[in-house]
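1st attempt posting a full record on here, be nice pls
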Amino acid sequence: MMIGEINQDNLYLLLPSKVSRLADMIQKNRHRSLVDAIKEIYISDVYKQLEQEETKMWHLGPVDLYNDLSNENNA
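the predicted structure (as tokens):
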């Protein structure tokens, strides 16, 4: 393993910052509480994919993740 390589064993280190930014967007754009925004993220299929390294969703920024989550909710 190379230094700085993202794999399933260390992916968990990236997730809190992704969830934090996404929750902030949900809170502002959908006028939800922080707790409700975080719950929405953690129960979503987007999060299930995000926590799997092989999907490479950890490359996505908060805007893309927010759009994916919005599309999931509208499906």
